Amino acid sequence: MKSAIEGPNCIDPQICKGDCCSIQIDFPKVLANEYIRRGYADTNDFIRSNVFSFYLRFDVTTGKCFLFDKEINGCSIHNSGIKPPQCWIYPTGFSNPENKPIMCKKVGGWKIKDIGKAKQAEKLLQTFIFLCEIEAKKELKSIQDRLNDSDDIVSKNSLYSLKKELKKIPPSSLGGFKDLWEHISILPAEGLSLQMKKFCVQNNKDCELLVDNFMKCPNICETIANKLVEFLQKNLIAYVKKEDGDVNGEYPLYKLFSSKNITSF
User: Fold this and answer.
1) φ, ψ for residue 212 (rounded to 5)?
2) Dihedral class, residue 10 (left if φ above 0, else alpha if ψ from -120 to 50, else beta)
3) How far apart are alpha carbons 176 and 198 in whole angstroms?
4) What span, in angstroms and rounded, lies between the C-alpha atoms of 102 and 144?
5) What is the per-residue pLDDT across 72-125, written as a single tens digit (0 to 9) for each?
6) Within the chain, where are the H helices?
């Protein structure tokens, strides 16, 4: 696609400052692995998605894709040969039969100079999307493996323990769970949360901090940590099958606890 189009010099700061790099890009794991292998990224740069397996992390300080490089005023992997294909398509698309002026977010002057190559690129993109969607379905199904790798009882060789992480935080700080590259992790609450109070009452009713001093509880106890991991083992897969995954791979407690697919609490 690169050789099929032409337009302004995007890395000229007088023309643009990476405005199109604020577009969220869905991404397959097979390409993510190659980025990691070449040193362009690490596993934290890929966020679970319900479109492809992941999408590229945004840098909160710039509001742009983490691959945006201020020094070159553009994508750090522009000339790598493995830039996300979606990025090459914007803003021209694959055809312009009415020969209308094409503009990006900042400037005009874009055009398709080789229709044949553009059409070939369109076919390749459709194949890319098809394969990415197949991979994404497999990744969603493998959430059980990531859940097992988070459970130090099920997986004796796991380097990560969800139970140990839970015991480090107050129950009022737990917002839910997050599906990461290799395991299920903690999703922090936004501020203080009462979502865990009912769970604690039902699973550890003799706790001296219940009911009136729940907010003063300093850490999730062993009993509740075990019950939470058990709860996920019994219910997360059914929830994901019903809801078809979350756009960010996040599973808040309020959704899990209120789901009709939950068989045990």
Assistant:
1) -75, -25
2) alpha
3) 14
4) 46
5) 888 899 888 898 988 888 888 888 888 888 888 878 888 988 899 989 999 999
6) 29-38, 85-89, 115-141, 143-148, 162-166, 195-203, 222-243, 253-258
